[in-house]
């Protein structure tokens, strides 16, 4: 997941203070990526990432406040101090590491291809001359763009790409494995019509993003995450949300 974005330099130079002092950490998430983070029927923000950050807070000895934040401005908000951290299926990349700090990785979520059942092809090169979709600003789109022989269609939300695939408007969708599992394995509308083909073809580790230089927050998160892993809670959450 999964997500990639180019940052305007101005975002890096924005200065701000942590919105909350003391032992509370405010964490932003774009709750549109089930099963990692989404809003349920009761208007609660839920998902793998949400359970994980709550477990990290418990093990790390701090309070967490979660804010639903649109993806297109989520990192600018981190840079200007609107919140302390971002947990939102954020792929750790070298470019991002220049703009922000990251926790230790917590899951590997490589890119996969989703197609309609009966579609031929298991790797990107098999889709040359066809149309593939992905959410704008994500690593999935970046992978498609590497092959100019593939027609690319971008979407504001990955669900719109999946729906177009279901309707036959595109030939495939590139998305990180957890999100693919949500649509293909758990969604009643799509599970009998769509299929994940091949194996993940990238290694993409998710991390929790922290404003550059905010060592206090980074240390608290890493301490809690280490305890979560030691207790096997991360594996329990994988079984709950991704299997």
Lay out the secondary structure.
Blueprint: H1 9-13, E1 24-29, E2 32-33, E3 37-39, E4 45-46, H2 48-60, E5 63-68, H3 74-79, E6 85-86, H4 94-99, E7 100-102, E8 107-108, E9 111-116, E10 131-135, H5 139-145, E11 151-155, H6 158-166, E12 172-176, H7 177-186, E13 194-197, E14 205-206, E15 209-211, H8 215-231, H9 233-241
Parallel strand pairs: 1-5, 1-6, 10-11, 10-12
Antiparallel strand pairs: 2-3, 3-4, 6-15, 7-15, 8-14, 9-12, 9-13
Helix pairs in contact: 2-8, 2-9
Can you give keywords for this protein?
single chain, 243 residues, alpha/beta, D-Maltodextrin-Binding Protein, domain 2, 2 domains, five-stranded mixed β-sheet, 15 strands, 34% helix
Give a short overview.
Helices cover 34% and strands 23% of the residues. By secondary structure, it is of the alpha/beta class. A hairpin with a 5-residue loop joins strand 3 (37-39) and strand 4 (45-46).
**How many helices?**
9
Structurally, the number of domains stands at 2
Query: Major β-sheet, in short?
Result: 5 strands, mixed
N-to-C SSE series? HEEEEHEHEHEEEEHEHEHEEEHH
The average pLDDT score comes to: 90
**Spatial gap, N to C terminus:** 16 Å
The first-level CATH class name of the largest domain = Alpha Beta
Low-confidence stretches: 4-21
The oligomeric state of the chains shown is: single chain
Structural class by secondary-structure content: alpha/beta
How many DSSP-defined strands?
15
The share of residues in helices is 25-40%
Order of strands in the sheet with the most strands? 5-1-6-15-7
Radius of gyration: 18 Å
CATH arch. level architecture of the largest domain: 3-Layer(aba) Sandwich
**In one word, what is the shape?**
globular
Residues in β-strands, percent: 15-25%
CATH topology of the largest domain: D-Maltodextrin-Binding Protein, domain 2
Q: Find the CATH superfamily of the largest domain.
A: Periplasmic binding protein-like II
